[in-house]
Amino acid sequence: MHSSDIQALNQKIHEESAVMERLLNETSKVIVGQKYMLERLIIGLLAKGHILLEGMPGLAKTLAINTLSKAIEAKFQRIQFTPDLLPADIVGTMIYNPSSGKFQVRRGPIFSNFILADEINRAPAKVQSALLEAMQERQVTIGDETYPLDEPFLVLATQNPIEQEGTYPLPEAQSDRFMLKAVISYPSKEEERQIIRLNMSGEFENIKKVATINDIIQARKTVREVYMDERIEKYILDIVFATRDPKGNNLPGLADLISYGGSPRASINLALAAKAYAYLQRRGYVIPEDIRAICKDVLRHRIGLTYEAQAENISAEDIIDKILNTVKVP
Asked: Tens of pLDDT along 230-241?
């Protein structure tokens, strides 16, 4: 790509990304001090990737997703996952109509643009897997018919940490469908003071619609155009391959800690998320810092830990840190 092309792309992104800036500002009126979470939600939206939010109850995960959907002219549905939920409660089912003597399709809440799967790990695997076809193929099968889902289609799932009683860990195949897993932490004292005051006054700002579905679809096209050099591609591959074969990538100390590494989906999603991150920075090209900024969100749920790692209290984040500190930066 010539420098003149990159300059033209930079200019285009600078103009277009103002919509995303408005989206961030609008959601920040209600969500105090969770810029990291809001940015990850928008990156998922731009890169056409589903997002898993993990954190303790009460950290505004549900509120953030609800607020984002209000700021975009899109259909929103919240599904509360519970142990007694059935797959038909999500995708829909066939209902018999006595007057016509035929079965009719009753569509489930999955037929929306934004799906909030609240506390997804409170439902058994059979129900979680009902989301798989929708997430991967962006279609749903009810009876003999297959129905395409509207674009943009985005699943935003929240889960409480696995240690909590009454939760089911997500199957690896489903975890891999989430582009990002963002771990949400507690707010600072000053941020929490603002949250208290906002709730005590009861004066929440009305969220205005600052973006349309067409804005999102156009932004997604532009994100795909963001330039990625071959050296950046090699950097992504070096990172992902280090999770699969630590010994062959100068990380012999990690071999006994990793049970499985990132799939090819990890490489694809790291590239896409890095492009979306660069777009948010109003840049038409990806730099190594973009990869490093988004790497943990893409990989933390794609690295399997051995019993040895768990016994030594070594987390996936610790492993990613060691990989990033060892793999040569272009």
From this structure: 999 999 999 999
